[in-house]
Design a protein that fits this description.
Helix content is about 30%, strand content about 25%. By secondary structure, it is an alpha/beta fold.
């Protein structure tokens, strides 16, 4: 991963292609006011795979049509164990019990690419959970927010009350490292992204 300042720069484009069907990633891009189109990736994830490899696989499986393609994959790592998306309620309960009262790491692989260049980066955010009581764990499981979530929780939802400390990019914990993405787009498209000149924003 070389210095973006030394790379050839691209002209402004109409938006990016999100190689993901994640509603959280769509919401983050909308929050950042980045124009995008969703295209489901033709890529099969391995449950215990590397998030950087998964992000690259997603992005490379989609044709951007001249626009940059974004692929992202997020996992949770606790005490050397990688936690993906729980398969059922009992697995979700085991994950949350493991995270209770500990500090874990949320890792996202990000791939931003066009036909001419490719950016590959890994972003880590540290999250500390307070000790969770059995009753609140049960209520959280009953709410179903754990479904389809790496580590069995959604920091932007009810699990916001679990975190005592977050060190790093909060949006990375939600599912997309927004600060990194905006930085990359600013470096690659210095005259503005999405057809909007920088001085008109």
């Amino acid at each position: 991963m070389s210095d973006p300042a030394r790379r050839p720069l691209a002209e402004p484009v109409a938006g990016l292609v999100l190689a993901s069907t994640s509603p959280q990633r769509r919401e983050i891009l909308a929050q950042l006011r980045l124009p995008f189109e969703v295209v489901a990736p033709a890529y099969h994830e391995l449950p215990e795979g590397d998030p950087l490899a998964h992000a690259a696989g997603k992005a490379r499986s989609v044709e951007g049509g001249g626009r940059p393609v974004l692929g992202v994959d997020t996992v949770v790592r606790c005490a050397g164990v990688q936690l993906g998306k729980p398969r059922d309620r009992s697995e979700a309960a085991a994950m949350l019990e493991a995270l209770s009262g500990t500090t874990h790491e949320v890792c996202s692989g990000l791939c931003l690419r066009t036909a001419e260049w490719e950016e590959l980066h890994l972003v880590r955010t540290s999250v500390s959970f307070r000790r969770l009581l059995p009753g609140e764990l049960e209520r959280y499981l009953e709410a179903g927010e754990w479904v389809g979530r790496a580590g069995a929780y959604a920091i932007q939802g009810l699990a916001a009350g679990f975190a005592e400390r977050i060190d790093g990019d909060y949006l990375n914990v939600v599912g997309l490292p927004g600060a990194l993405l905006v930085s990359l787009l600013s470096a690659r498209f210095p005259d503005g992204f999405g057809g909007v000149p920088r001085d008109e924003r």
